[in-house]
Amino acid sequence: MKHQQPPITINKLDAARRQLRAAIRLWFNNGDPVAVHTLASAAHEIIHTLFRRAGCRGMMFDTPYIKDEFRSEWAKLLKRHASFFKHAREDPDGVTVFNPATNFGLITASAYGLRKLGEPLAVEDACFTFWLRVHRPNWFPNQVTENGIPVNLFQRYGDIEIDDFFEMFESLWRQGKAPGQQGRRDVWGPTGPPN
Fold it and tell me: What integer is the mean pLDDT of 144-171?
């Protein structure tokens, strides 16, 4: 018997959230970096458009650190691998050198965009953000203890393997005890995510 799912009605924001969550789960489970990139890029593209339409600025495509005359070149650079992974019409025998570290930036920017759009964090978004807090504390303001996340929490979780980190966080989430969960202090802190 074939597995059939009923049709679903989905909007663009829902699609982006689903793509981002799938990318984050793959990332935490050391999944294929090309699949992570393809999903994260698709999510980022939608989130960036919605972010701009909401009057927000400052994600990857419209960062204030790139001059306007170079913005088109910058966007092409950011989309280069995503396009390569999706299309073969122009270069069916093409080869590229891909750095999986770019996935980290796409996921970070997309999670930031969702937060700035007022979207609640899902377990995947919150876990990724918390992982950043644990493994990249220097990216954040020094107000950690004022935001309900004790410094020793960083140290305690810093040595957990990446896939175990997600399992641990998801377990806390299910119990309603994870940072970033509804009713809990924001994982980013009062000043928001790192710029």
Answer: 73
78 vs 146, which has greater pLDDT? 78
Q: Taking 80 as the threshold, does the pLDDT of residue 184 lie above it?
A: no
pLDDT at 124 over 90: yes
119, 140, 162: which is the final residue of a domain?
119
Q: Are 106 and 21 found together in one domain? A: yes
Which CA distances in Å does 187 have to 60, 128, 148? 21, 10, 9
Mean pLDDT of 113-129: 88
- Residue 54 counted as domain residue: yes
Q: Which domain holds residue 18?
A: 7-119
Residue 144 token pair: 């950690």
